[in-house]
Design goal:
Two copies of one chain form a homodimer. Helix content of chain A is about 35%, strand content about 20%. Chain A is an alpha+beta fold. The radius of gyration of chain A is 18 Å and the shape is globular. Chain A binds a DNA duplex through helix 1 and helix 3.
Chain lengths: ~140, ~140
DNA sequence: TTCCTTGCAAATCGTTTGCATAATG
DNA sequence: CATTATGCAAACGATTTGCAAGGAA
C-alpha cells in the first residue's frame, strides 16, 4: 500500500509534464525508452494507471479506442480533431452550469461530467484548403 | 454497397428499440440469441457497426471500456452511474451553447461535442442509504 | 528484511476479420 | 445470378496480470 520511489515512474511523469499534447501509453513507452531502454510496456501501463488513480494525471478517453494521458489535472476541456486525431487543450470559460441543467428533474446526484469537442483543428483546416487528405483517426 | 434485408439485423434493431437502457454488444447477443439461437457474436457486432454508421443507432462510449448502443438517435444526453454502471437518458434543456463557448478563441472549427454526466443514480442513492454495497462499473 | 516495483511473457477482453456457405434481390 | 449477410473461428490491438527477480525504505 505504501508507495515506494521508482525511477521509471519519475521518468514517465516527467515526460508527461513536458508535453502539451496528450500521449498514449505507447508514445510514453517509446519516448521513455530512449532514456530508459529496459523499461517495459507493462511498467508504463502500471504507472500510468497508478498515477491516474492517485489523481496525479488524467486518463482521457476521446473515442479513438486508445487512452490518452494528461499531466495537467486542472479543470479544462479538450478538442479532438476528427481529421488528424490530435487532442488539443481548450481555453474556455467555465461551463459547470451544464451540471445544474442536467440535474434539474433528475432524481440521482450528478457529481461530474466529461465533455469532448470534435471538429477540424486549425492545421487541418489549412491543409484541406490546400487539397491534402490526411486520414481520420476516430473510429 | 446495396443493403440487403436480413432477419438478424431486424431482430437486433427491434431488441434495441425495445430497451430504454443502453445495452452492450454482448447483451444484445445474449438476448437476440433467445429468439435466434444460431446468431453469432460477429454478426451482432457487424450489424451494430453497420447501423451506427448508417445513423440508425448511436454508439455510446461512456468510459467503462465497453461500447453501449442506443436506438434513440434524437439528440439527448446520458448519465452514467459510477456505482452500478447503468446508463440513463437525461431530459434536459439544450446546451449547444457550450460549443460557442468552446469555439471562442479557438482557431479550429468545432462541429460537435460529446458529454456524459456522472454521479450516483436514484436507485443507488437509496441503496447506499440502506447500507448496501454494489460494485463500481467504471474503470 | 519487508514488500513495493520491475521486466518479461502470457493472458484477457472487446472487437474485427477471413473464409466458405447461406440468403436476398 | 450477382452480391450481401452469416456463422465460425482465428486474428487483433490495447491493456492487464502472474511470477520470479530487483530495488527502496
Amino acid at each position: 500500500m505504501a508507495l515506494k520511489h521508482s525511477a521509471q515512474r519519475d521518468k514517465i511523469m516527467a515526460f508527461l509534464m513536458g508535453r502539451k499534447d496528450h500521449p498514449t501509453a505507447d508514445v510514453v513507452y517509446m519516448n521513455v525508452r530512449k532514456e530508459y531502454p529496459n523499461i517495459s510496456l507493462g511498467t508504463v501501463y502500471r504507472n500510468l494507471t497508478l498515477l491516474a488513480n492517485m489523481g496525479e494525471i488524467m486518463r482521457l478517453r476521446v473515442g479513438d479506442g486508445v487512452d490518452h494521458f494528461d499531466a495537467d489535472t486542472s479543470p479544462h476541456y479538450h478538442f479532438v480533431c476528427t481529421e488528424c486525431g490530435s487532442v488539443i487543450d481548450l481555453e474556455m470559460e467555465n461551463i459547470d452550469t451544464i451540471q445544474d441543467i442536467a440535474g434539474a428533474g433528475f432524481d440521482g446526484k450528478i457529481a461530474g461530467h466529461v465533455t469532448y469537442f470534435y471538429g477540424i483543428c486549425g492545421d487541418c483546416s489549412k491543409e484541406s484548403a490546400s487539397g491534402q487528405k490526411p486520414e481520420t483517426a476516430l473510429q
